[in-house]
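Ticket #4471: structure output looks truncated?

Reporter: J.K.
Steps to reproduce: submitted the chain below (742 residues) through the standard prediction queue, then opened the result file.
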Amino acid sequence: MVGSDLKSTIERLKKAQLKVVDNPQLANDEVYNRTTNRLWDLLVLRLSKQGGLEVAEIWKHIHSECLQLPVSGTSMISKGSLADSLWVPILELGFKDSEILKSICDYANELTDSSGKRWLKLYQYIMQHMLLNDRGSEAVYWHDILSDRHRPGPATFQRLMRNVIVDVSGKADLAALKEIYIRNPYRAAYSKVMPPLLQRQDFYRAFDWHMFLQYHGDLPLNADMVEPLVQYFAMFDMNTAKGISCGLTSSGSPLAPVLTKRISQSNANSQDMMKLASGDAAHTESKLHNDKWGARWFATKWVTLDIAINTIHALKVNTIGPLSLQSIALREPRAADIARRIDQLQQRGISIGNSAYSKALASFAKRDQHELLQSLLESDQHPETFEDKVLQENLLISHARAGDWRQHQLILAVQLVSAIDPQMEEYNIQLRKYATERDEVAIVKTLETMRMKRIAVEVVTIRYILRSILRPRTRGHRPDLRVEGYVKRDTDLVISILKNIMEYNSFVPVTAWREVTRRLGMVGRITDLHSLSLWLADRYNHNTDGQTSALRLNSKFVSIRSQLSHSHPLHPLRLLFPDVRQRSIVEWSFIHGMMSHSTFVKENLELVDMTTPQDRNAQVLEKVTRGIHFLKELGRHGVFINEANVRRAVYIRLVILYGPGHSNRVYNRAVRPYNPLSLAEMVRGVEEAWGRPLWPSVQSLQDRIKKERMGVALLPGPRKATRLTGNMNLEMERMYGRFTVE
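Returned output as attached by the reporter:
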């Protein structure tokens, strides 16, 4: 652009502004303003490329022609504020020549007086330049001049003070800033002045400003704002710390009591560190091993992490706990910064320990796994709880059922990091994940991969599969059958998974099958229970190849088990089919056999009338004695069967069916009227199924049953009548309810 072009642009701008004088409505016309702004952009382009002489020439034309510089709008060239793009280079010229600066300020005053418009940054820009360039006396002078028409608002003045305070060049005139503060009516700068000073630990300058602001009634909004200052002096100059607190009290601040309490709480920690630093290790030797104390030390805001780490290094602390590491991590914004701090500790010979929490935090930080790191630091769990495997399993199931996958994934990740064998743990974690999702296909594929890689299924995984798939049931009650089909699906899925695990040569504890078999019996799936029990008997019998392969993980364990007799309480088959389970098998067949018969009678009266009594009796006996035949078959597969269990279980059912009392269980009372068998017929059928007599005679048994009262029974054997006590009484009440006299 040549000189004639500059004059042409000025002339066009002058004509445009004269049009507004003649037609004020143009000031709000969008097309007009866009055209005018393009003309100003031509000057912006020239100001940005030319030197001081060109800027002076442009300012001379603007001033002489009385053009109104814009105070808002967007520059199409700089993509920023149009006003800033014009005012700033002109002011930079004025900072080099006081006469030009005076003319600019006079021009700004005239612009405000004539149009009511003003560039809002004029005061801040001039004051900030003067204060940061060792021109404090000029700053005070220009404050007095500009305050009349260009006084800043509270936010602008706070921003000015902060910008000057945080200057690191050392040229800032803070005395002049205080003078300007005194002459200014705003008294709300404490929150802008103190934090940057405390953040860079300039405590003595912060104390000076605290006292200055407090004197002028500018007080902290909360205790956190002044606490680092007081804590610092509480460690090195307690009288000054108390003076700050007393000063706030005398100034009417409500924060003084809160601050005094916090000083008292943190004083012991500070004093301990001072005594340690001075060599009085005997007084605080136990503190070095106190993770809570370490966490408080690393969380101290007025001590940088560099100082905190160097201090414990000087005190020869060689290990920090998970709480201390957590405090360090909470003070760093990024994973890379946390990893750097862990490296810094290790370089000084300070270990982070072997806790699951510390291992996980270090792993997440070094791998830049930001989401997992945030979840760990924000977790409600105490770091020590991650060591409790049982608790973590329960939480996994709870989070899965609640759909809280963020916490679910966190627990799995922590377990993987702290695992002794990461590959085994990774595959086991996959199994637990698929179990939560009930994905049988994925489970089978994972088991196949584990078999090929010779990776064992952990017992904790098996336990997790059971607890995540089998929905809870009330103790002593069968599963809730109100939702059709889900009980069968859950049970069948667990059976399929456990069978797959055993077939892939992984050990499944016998106790894992107890709940599965119990549920099959409770819901009346006697046929399924029968086939599964025979399969298990073969697998856990030490004489079969299946049991040997299933227990191959511990040859010593197999060797010991192989030496046990089948009647030994620790034999796998005795653990799988204990006395209580043998009694339950007999009674489940009675319960569901009678229920099945009563249902059939109620729904098929015509068919019942067409059958002979002998056929009906035979059908009932076949159903109720299935459990007895079941036990005999288990005996042939190596299970030790105790005849006393059969006798006790049958006796309890006979009392319910033929005794003088009645059960408080509805299904027990409901089937009794549909029982077509006499006591003698029932006993004869049971003994035929068992293969030998269970009682001396039917008459003696009938006499005993007639003597039954609530809680009173004649126990088997030569003993006299006695009160039912112990496990038998509890078992009867649990399974069949209390008995009352009719």
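Triage note (M.O.): checked the attachment and the full token line is present. Confidence is low (pLDDT under 50) at residues 276-289, 543-562, 710-742.
Status: closed, working as intended.
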